Amino acid sequence: PGQMHYYIPATPETVLWGYFSKNAKPTVEIESGDFVTMETLTHHANDDAERMVKGDPGAESIFHWDAQGKGVDRRGAGPMDAKIGAGGGAGVHICTGPVRIKGAQPGDILEVRIVDVAPRPSGNPDYKGKTFGSNAAAWWGFHYGDMLTEPKKREVVTIYEVDATGERNWAKAVYNYRWTPQTDPFGVVHPTIDYPGVPVDHSTITKKENILRDIRIPIRPHFGTIGLAPAEADMVNSIPPNYTGGNIDNWRIGKGAKIYFPVAVDGGMFSVGDPHASQGDSELCGTAIECSLTGTFQFILHKKADLPGTSLAELNYPLLETQDDWVLHGFSYANYLAELG
């Protein structure tokens, strides 16, 4: 096997925003055994562009949006003429990739080893040595409409500070704000968080400082969305997970873990995104602490002919191995694309 090491920066050319695709142009083609370092950006960076976008050329180019156009126009697998924006937000995660694995064919298993995970430092000199993340208690979360005080239906964004060196293993809240209707640079009003990457105009929000004082949130950086392209459709919404992986949102998919995916299309077509600084065993409020990370992965291809009699034989779901556990991922539909059409 090869031992090459590739680097994929996050740029408008190396990301698919909101979808997996078997037909997307690969960012790189590698051999089994090779290593790839991949920058991943949180789709929530524009919740506080000063801290999470400004001064960071990769983030600035991907999140760029003015009256003339967007750095990445399609955001989601929906129609390009959707009212709320191209792609319709049918899928929200910024997925870096795809990486094509030479010789990978349907029926094979791709083992992905997460060798390292590092926070992405703020590019703004005002915040040197710091990293930030956003947590949105959003309309799709369980808190929405379940508040004790009025207004009952409200979305609240909390900005957290993370140690960019990765040495301090906790995050602290900086401030929060209630989402107010945001008018994007094309003039579309977003009354709720309904389209990824909408720039939040901070003159329209009220910041609450000094929140969650003396509260430390333990961090365990991981990738919420990780997997291969499914075979059933050319463009697949990044939100529902399926047999080839996707938006699994398991905090155990971090440094030191290995995850095994069934290969569905030639080359496998691996993408990763939705980076998180921290999350519990769900996204109860709708999101994690969404925070840009850089991961280093090693790819090991297990050919179909070699699988009989091994623990990977007939594997048809993403299987996670950590130093403590084997984690079997069961979804409401084992393959919703085939079962639901």
Output mean pLDDT: 96
Radius of gyration, whole Å:
19 Å
Uncertain residue ranges: none
* Helix-residue proportion: under 10%
Task: Record the strand order, biggest sheet.
Answer: 1-5-23-9-20-24-25
Distance between the termini: 38 Å
Task: Give me a quick take on this structure.
This protein is mainly β. The chain has helices at 49-52, 57-63, 336-340; strands at 5-8, 15-17, 19-21, 28-30, 35-40, 65-66, 69-70, 94-101, 109-119, 130-137, 156-163, 170-178, 182-183, 189-190, 208-209, 217-218, 222-228, 235-237, 245-247, 258-262, 270-278, 289-290, 293-302, 319-321, 326-328.
Task: Describe the secondary structure blueprint for this structure.
Elements (H helix, E strand, L loop, with lengths): L4 E4 L6 E3 L1 E3 L6 E3 L4 E6 L8 H4 L4 H7 L1 E2 L2 E2 L23 E8 L7 E11 L10 E8 L18 E8 L6 E9 L3 E2 L5 E2 L17 E2 L7 E2 L3 E7 L6 E3 L7 E3 L10 E5 L7 E9 L10 E2 L2 E10 L16 E3 L4 E3 L7 H5 L1
Parallel strand pairs: 1-5, 4-8
Antiparallel strand pairs: 2-8, 3-18, 5-23, 6-7, 8-21, 9-20, 9-23, 10-11, 11-12, 12-15, 12-16, 13-14, 17-19, 17-21, 20-24, 21-22, 24-25
Keywords:
globular; 25 strands; 3 helices; about 35% strand; about 350 residues; mainly beta
Structure, explained:
The chain is mainly beta and 341 residues long. The chain is built from three helices and 25 strands. Strands 1-5-23-9-20-24-25 form a seven-stranded mixed sheet, with no helix packed on it. Strands 2, 4, 8, 17, 19, 21 and 22 form a seven-stranded mixed sheet that branches. Strand 6 (65-66) and strand 7 (69-70) form a beta hairpin. It starts with a strand and ends with a helix.
